[in-house]
Q: What sequence folds into this?
């Protein structure tokens, strides 16, 4: 078997280049092929030694490829997206949130001034109706009415402008129409 290997070593290495790119890997496969062929020769007579040698080489290559693919599959199986994902919002979600905040600010700007002050004190700064009434020297029922009006108008404004990308010339024209409604 060893004599057949030495006669066919260059052809065998060319054959193995189809499956392995590294010369180190090719040498390892050749060495494993020779060892297996010599072990097989001890157990029985081999009628076609050259074909047997190439068959062993092919089996060794398959075994190595299987081992590499199992390692890759194990890596993929060990990969859990939770370990590599973030709980932070996506860039798209952050941009959408920013755009909504801008629209909310625009909605506040179109409110009447007294309604705007009451609404900001209540919804943004968190004051109670009583505190707002004392601070602005108005009745609690007036505070309630301004808060209700502010909620209604900001909601309408936000719904009307929910698909806008940003303030542009067309948006400004639309804003003027909205202001005249309020």
A:
């Amino acid at each position: 078997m060893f004599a057949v290997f030495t006669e066919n070593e260059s052809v065998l290495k060319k054959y193995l280049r189809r499956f392995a790119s590294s010369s180190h890997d090719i040498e390892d496969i050749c060495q494993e092929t020779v060892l297996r062929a010599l072990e097989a020769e001890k157990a029985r007579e081999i009628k076609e030694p050259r074909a047997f040698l190439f068959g062993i080489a092919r089996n060794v290559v398959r075994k190595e490829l299987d081992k590499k693919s199992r390692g890759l599959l194990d890596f993929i199986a060990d990969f859990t997206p939770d370990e590599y994902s973030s709980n932070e919002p996506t860039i798209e979600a952050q941009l959408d949130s920013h755009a909504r905040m801008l629209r909310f600010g625009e909605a506040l700007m179109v409110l009447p001034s007294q309604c705007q002050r009451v609404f900001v004190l209540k919804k943004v700064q968190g004051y109670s109706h009583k505190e707002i009434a004392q601070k602005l020297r108005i009745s609690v029922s007036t505070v309630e009415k301004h808060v209700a009006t502010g909620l209604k108008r900001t909601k309408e404004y936000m719904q009307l402008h929910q698909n806008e990308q940003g303030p542009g010339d067309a948006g400004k024209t639309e804003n003027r129409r909205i202001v005249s409604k309020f």
User: Anything to note?
Assistant: Residues 91-181 form a domain with the Arc Repressor Mutant, subunit A fold (CATH 1.10.10.10). The two ends are 98 Å apart (CA to CA). The longest helix spans residues 49-78. The chain has nine helices and no strands.
